[in-house]
Write a structure and sequence with these properties.
Blueprint lengths: L3 E2 L3 E8 L2 E8 L4 H8 L18 E4 L2 E4 L12 E3 L12 H9 L8 H16 L9 H5 L10 H7 L10 H17 L24 H4 L5
Parallel strand pairs: 2-6
Antiparallel strand pairs: 1-2, 2-3, 4-5, 4-6
Helix pairs in contact: 2-6, 3-6
Bound molecules: FE2/S2 (inorganic) cluster (2 copies).
């Protein structure tokens, strides 16, 4: 669509959880604000509003992104997955089930961001992306094979998501529970296109966040 613009607002389309939403946004509005206040998708939380806590994590073209740092006007046509797109009350995503079974939360405020970040992280590891905790030996012989996700790797890869209740031990256990499943579904991150490489994200293509999400239900 041709964006309709004024000095302070633009009309654009965001594809959120496989639904296209055409909205008029203030040029100062972040993706997080549009999700919560205009689309009424309140799963993504505003914690710090400064890119420090991860409570607002969404998948942008299949890669993790802090939605509080993304100016919505720059993302016309983008594909986003929020926690609402991973599962529902009838069919939880495996990582949602694992969080529930492991009691991986207390107040729950950080939990949507933790789960979305965990899904994105599992995709990254399944595609062989190293982390700061990846051993020099593993880096030297890196072949693009799935990265081994031991506890140090999980902690490092999830370090952008803060839990003020300190539920970290159970969060790590919940992610461990689905790791093997994720590695079997290597390279199937939802909604990745080459357009996602900016804004601190990577890219990919896909059509259905629920069916392509890693790990699949
Ligand atoms: S609210 Fe976005 S990182 Fe904290
Ligand atoms: S469960 Fe309360 S902040 Fe994480």
């Amino acid at each position: 669509m041709i964006p309709q613009r004024t000095a302070t607002s633009s009309t654009l389309t965001l594809h959120v959880n496989d639904t296209a939403h055409t909205v008029t946004v203030d040029h100062r509005a972040t993706v997080l604000d549009v999700l919560r206040e205009q689309l009424h998708l309140t799963g993504s939380k505003k914690g710090c509003d400064h890119g420090q806590c991860g409570a607002c994590t969404v998948l942008l073209e299949g890669r993790r992104a802090n939605s509080c740092l993304l100016l919505a006007v720059a993302y016309d046509g983008a594909h986003l997955t929020t926690v609402e797109g991973l599962g529902d009350e009838e069919r939880l995503h495996p990582l949602q089930e694992a969080f529930h079974e492991r009691d991986a939360f207390q107040c729950g405020y950080c939990t949507p961001g933790q789960i979305v970040s965990g899904v994105g992280m599992l995709c990254e590891a399944a595609e062989g992306h190293p982390s700061h905790a990846t051993s020099p030996e593993a880096l030297q012989w890196a072949t693009g094979a799935p990265a081994e996700l031991n506890r140090d790797e999980i902690r490092e890869r999830m370090s952008g998501n803060i839990c003020r209740c300190g539920a970290y031990p159970h969060i790590v256990e919940a992610i461990e529970d689905v790791t093997d499943h994720a590695l079997r579904h290597r390279g199937t991150a939802p909604h990745r296109t080459d357009a996602g490489a900016d804004a601190g994200t990577d890219a990919d293509s896909g059509t259905d966040a629920r069916t392509d999400a890693v790990p699949a239900r």
